[in-house]
């Protein structure tokens, strides 16, 4: 076996010869120069805050799997909306946890004009008219089986579900929702919702399509938050996208845009940044990502154990969405991030 010999200093080219004089560290040497050439920027305007709702008054419940995240009764949700608006957060996305007595196989309570989502929308828009309210018409918070659609003989029936969520979208718009954001992944839902909204005088209500919602393992804490974690039988692979597929994600997005979506979303977020980039490059439309409950919980748990700097990891993860091409991010970190951004 030959022994390694140390290279003679005169045999090694100078750094300037190796780099042809291109020293890329020059612009990293000082804070002012790093700021001057920073390519991606996170602003409070990029943040959408998802909040969870519960029935009653003056109720606030922390979600065990999501430290720092709470369910709020409508009166307290209004106060949280005021807090978010003062920080400059442009919009909220609301998700209800209703009593089990109001859930059935069809998710019928979504058609109640005075259900928890619609109550919250009316109250928030009255108190904080300048903040956007985004509402979901998926049925999972309203079903007794935890699926996003109507369950019939073990099958999620597409067309009946679409008809019901289109009707629910009109009720949500009537309550004051600014953006309908269907997350159910049923075929044809965007076109049906657009027709229903336009036919009822809500042409100005936008649609944010969960265009690429994947059958992910990262949703667990969310299902606890809306009370569906112990209900779900089977899985959602017959209507969510396989995590292995990217071309299918493009086809779903193209279809939703053709049907009338104004914005598209990728869910989950960080594990699917390649999808974000591909959608933005392919369609050049407003593109959002949902930093889901599992992503939030991982950062919080690691920070609680002292394994990483929670604030830095949070801000770095949010910046990654901007770098990938996101116009905005739904994140449970919205308030914390907005507070940090306010003092920068």
Automatic annotation (TrEMBL):
Pathway: Porphyrin-containing compound metabolism; protoporphyrin-IX biosynthesis; coproporphyrinogen-III from 5-aminolevulinate: step 1/4. InterPro entries: ALAD, ALAD_AS, Aldolase_TIM. Gene3D superfamilies: Aldolase class I. The keyword Thylakoid does not apply. It is an enzyme of class 4 (lyase). GO terms for molecular function: porphobilinogen synthase activity. It catalyses: 2 5-aminolevulinate = porphobilinogen + 2 H2O + H(+). The keyword Acyltransferase does not apply. Belongs to the ALAD family. Homooctamer. This is Delta-aminolevulinic acid dehydratase.
């Amino acid at each position: 076996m030959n022994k390694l010999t140390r290279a003679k200093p005169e045999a090694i080219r100078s750094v300037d010869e190796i780099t042809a004089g291109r020293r890329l560290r020059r612009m990293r040497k000082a804070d002012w120069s790093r700021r001057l050439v920073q390519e991606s920027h996170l602003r409070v305007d990029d943040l959408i805050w998802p909040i969870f709702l519960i029935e009653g008054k003056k109720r606030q419940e922390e979600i065990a799997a999501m430290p720092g995240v709470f369910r709020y009764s409508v009166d307290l949700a209004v106060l949280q909306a005021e807090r978010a608006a003062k920080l400059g957060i442009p919009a909220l996305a609301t998700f209800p946890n209703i009593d089990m007595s109001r859930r059935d196989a069809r998710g019928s309570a979504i058609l109640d004009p005075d259900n928890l989502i619609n109550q919250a929308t009316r109250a928030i828009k009255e108190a904080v008219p300048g903040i956007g309210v985004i509402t979901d018409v998926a049925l999972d918070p309203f079903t007794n089986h935890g699926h996003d659609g109507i369950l019939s003989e073990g099958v999620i029936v597409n067309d009946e579900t679409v008809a019901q969520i289109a009707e629910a979208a009109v009720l949500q718009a009537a309550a004051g929702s600014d953006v309908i954001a269907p997350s159910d992944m049923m075929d044809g839902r965007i076109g049906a919702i657009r027709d229903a909204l336009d036919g009822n005088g809500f042409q100005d209500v936008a649609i944010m399509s969960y265009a690429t919602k994947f059958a992910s393992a990262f949703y667990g804490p969310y299902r606890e938050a809306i009370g569906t974690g112990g209900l779900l039988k089977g899985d959602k692979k017959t209507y969510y996208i396989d995590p292995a597929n990217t071309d299918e994600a493009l086809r779903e997005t193209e279809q939703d845009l053709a049907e009338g979506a104004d914005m598209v979303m990728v869910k989950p977020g960080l594990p699917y940044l390649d999808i974000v980039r591909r959608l933005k490059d392919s369609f050049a439309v407003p593109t959002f990502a949902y930093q889901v409950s599992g992503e939030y919980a991982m950062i919080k748990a690691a920070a609680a154990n002292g394994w990483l700097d929670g604030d830095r990891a949070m801000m770095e993860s949010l910046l990654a969405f901007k770098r990938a091409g996101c116009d905005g991010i739904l994140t449970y970190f919205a308030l914390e991030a907005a507070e940090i951004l306010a003092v920068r």
